[in-house]
Amino acid sequence: MQGTIKERIRKNARDRQGRIRKELKVYDVKFRYTDNLTGESKETTKRGFLTKGEAEAFLLDLNNKLTTNTYLGDKPLLMSDYLTDWLEIYVKVNLRRTTYVGYKRIIEKHLIPHLGRFDIKKITSTEIDKMYAWLLQSGRVDGNGGLSAKTVLYTHRVLNEAMEHAVRKRLIYHNPVKTITNVPKPKRFKGNVYSADEILHLLELVKGTQFEIPVALAAICGLRRGECLALTEDDIDFDSKTISIYKQFLDLDNKATLGDPKSEESNRIISAPPEVFDIIKRHIECNAQKKEMLGEAYEDNRLLVCHDDGKPIRPVYFTKNFTRMIKRDKLKPIRFHDLRHSCASLMLRSGVAMKTASLILGHSAIGITADLYTHVMEDTKKEAAIQIGKEIFGTIEDGCAVQ
Description:
The protein is of the alpha+beta class. It folds into 4 domains: 4-67, no CATH class; 79-179, Tyrosine recombinase, N-terminal domain (DNA polymerase, domain 1), CATH 1.10.150; 196-372, Intergrase catalytic core (hpI Integrase, Chain A); 373-403. It is built from 14 helices and 10 strands.
């Protein structure tokens, strides 16, 4: 058995009945263990057992845990310290910058204020349930009610990932997030989509403005906002009528920051109709005129979509201005991202294969495309059934089959 028990005398100590004794016999357990945080072998002593039997019971239990690699140590590890270290050592190194920024906001604004004072080994599902309930009811920074279920669900996912990491590092036995009862259930958002006619009308309204290229690329080619804003003249091949997408603008540190696409599959080369290339060519010529007028004051990044002085446009500002434009012109309410959904819907309804649509949209898996556009596929399945019926039974007219 690992560890030793030593007897010693404590001066002016309380016995089991709470009486102070000038001299009291106690037992200390000295042992070695491996620190799960550092991997180092350490020596420590558990002091003050009032009977030798209690010391022996502790040592027996300790040896069982050491044998099964389930000893966690007695030194407390505050959730605030653990989450901060996990964020900087794991998240910052292994995940995308935008993911890191999102996790950091969740950890600093929600998790540490509510759970930071707890020892990670003593955190319970009850405390987590209480935090979620508070966030849903009173979590807004301005004090006007609670956070959305979607925001709290994101908080839940970040905490779960952090605690799963702690289990793998043997800092805790069990992930308490697994046994909570207040898992948020956000309603699925249903955005509007534009028809082909509505897209053409929108393109007419934005002709010659900074919105024209992004609207065309999102609604006709399925590009994301950041991908549209990051395109340069070098990404356009007018001969082959293709567009290369391998970067996007992210809104980080209050500025447009160039970053990698959302996933590996988002790196892609797409084709586009000639009308889209006509729009791009006009804007390249317009940007060249502005560059000539402003001279050295023009920041030439070769961007297709930019401010009049050539500087990149922050994605968040672009979205706000797009929303204002939609309201100003009294168009059917639509988010800019919904133009991408409009493109996907039009592709699938026109008979484009799901796999092809997934590749054009840059989804990381075809299942994402299928899940997002289930409603469209229901319509196409009905149309397919009608077409099969026509092939087998002849044309259906007024309930009669015409052979």
